[in-house]
Predict the structure.
Amino acid sequence: MLTALLLYLLTQRSLGKQAGLLCAFLFLSYPSTIVVGRKPGYEALTLFLIVLSLWCYVRYREKPSGLRLIALFGAATAGCLSDWAAYLVPPALLALQFSHHRTASPNWRLLGGLILIPATVLAAFLYTIYLVDSNSVLDLIHQGLAYTGLFSSDGAVVANIKEARIQFTLPEYLFRLVKNLDSGFGLMTLLLTSIGAILIHHDRDTRDYALVLAFAAVFTMVVFWRSLYIHLHWLQLLAAPLALTSTVAIRTLIERTDSRTRARNNPGATFMLLAILLPLAIGMLYNVRALSGQQIRGLPTPLHESSDFLRLLGHKLHALTEPGDQVMTNLGIAASTNAASYELILPYYSRRVIEKAIATPDEVSERLIVPIEDGKTRYFLLGPLTAEKGVHSPLRDWLRAKSEPKTFFINSHRFELYQVRYVHAAHSPMLLRENALDIL
């Protein structure tokens, strides 16, 4: 919403109030904004700080003051702290400054700040990483270079970097990129953007806004092109320049239609607006529904799962356990579930160590052999339990023989949380069976 407000203010300055409202409406109605904007992540925040930096720069150039300069530097710094794309905003603003104010005396405070901010933030970021783990600095560099495609997909450097190990042909890459653009914005939006890019040169201010926003987004995607192949949410950075250029196209088409039909008292402008927005809205609604079905699931596909399932389950585990406790679970075994749900998302919400896909008593015993820190506890999360599956499984019978579970429900699905204790190696079922086989 804040990004839409800033786009409205920017567009209003150069194209008027109605165009500002249209730009904000287009931005908010994009499937990418609707889906990615509510996702925990940095994309929406980074885009907001990019647009905020541009707005602060425009305000400072309009009426220079120390307070407005501090606001610009603060927005640019916060943007650099959020993600790499925001590092490109200061260079874009520097280019804008030089192109429009070459004859004026240099504004050394503005120029110096725009040069120093990305360099200082990057240096502080790398130094902080070095203090925590000096080897991580090299890992970070390798990761960035892997996203640019500079390492071979089968090399040792990229063994743990998924984006670098994926192989694809140029037609496959282009097809997927177009498919993702269609999913996030709709092909109608791309058509309007193409028209707007041609017509935007008539208004210098609007053109400058679009160039700054597009530069930060497009340059990032060109450099880290391999990552763009699998990360649909990266395209959210395009939402602002697409909304701005589409607004220019729609506004110009309506004005030209209106000027030709006004003399005949024919409401051509209204029909033109409907002819553009109706198919645009239909395509966006379809894509929103399609994207909403691509949620990261934690349960097997046939089972109902709301969008907040993992968050609710994580919060419940957080409430039932203590900091430092470890949680094992059978979740994540089925092929239809997403492994990242239990390796990244569930630990994020629960603030606990989660070990997934443990299906048998022997697998539990293997982990119980390893001593745990004094005062800490191991738990086993079993579920979801239904009348048809899981209620009489060997794993559940084994767990119930060890302790009484705490039962709770998430999205109407039943879960049981067992407290499991350290098992001496000599008493491990697996080892006892192996010893028996050796005797035989």
In short: DSSP finds 20 helices and five strands in the chain. Residues 144 and 404 are 49 Å apart (CA to CA).
